[in-house]
Amino acid sequence: MDVPLLITTTLESRADAEKLGTLLLRKRLVACAQISGPVSSSYWWQGEIVSAEEYVLTMKSDELRYQELEEVLRAAHPYEVPEILATVIAHVSEGYRQWLEKELE
């Protein structure tokens, strides 16, 4: 298996997060999509500090699929500049690694 990744993005609504997660699951670009929230976010946007309620979509995938996953995320994401963060998973249990590899086939 390639290097496992934990990818996160944020969305304005739970429905948007569910739609995007399902799209990526159907394309087998992620093995798992989890939605958390709502969370309160504050950030700079167009020269101002803004606050918003968002939902966090956390996905499990691998380095091999990352480029296509990012392309699909950018095309389907409703935000002009979506947050797309990928973190290498340094350690993973053998059983979970096997499951992840199987589900990304």
Structural descriptors:
single chain; 105 residues; alpha+beta; Alpha-Beta Plaits; four-stranded antiparallel sheet; 3 helices; 35% helix; 39% strand
Polypeptide structure, described:
- This protein has 105 residues and is α+β, with helices and mostly antiparallel strands.
- The protein has one domain (4-103): Alpha-Beta Plaits (2-Layer Sandwich), CATH 3.30.70.120.
- Helices cover 35% and strands 39% of the residues.
- The chain has 3 helices and 4 strands; from the N terminus they run βαββαβα.
- A 4-stranded antiparallel beta sheet has the order 2-3-1-4.
- A hairpin with a 2-residue loop joins strand 2 (32-45) and strand 3 (48-62).
- The N and C termini lie close together (10 Å).
- The model has no long low-confidence stretch (mean pLDDT 97).
* Helix percentage: 25-40%
> Separation of termini?
10 Å
Number of domain modules: 1
Largest sheet: 4 strands, antiparallel
Which regions contain 5 or more consecutive residues with pLDDT less than 50? none
Structure, briefly:
The protein is of the alpha+beta class and 105 residues long. The protein is built from 3 helices and 4 strands.
Spell out the blueprint of helices and strands.
Layout: E1 4-11, H1 14-26, E2 32-45, E3 48-62, H2 63-76, E4 85-88, H3 94-103
Antiparallel strand pairs: 1-3, 1-4, 2-3
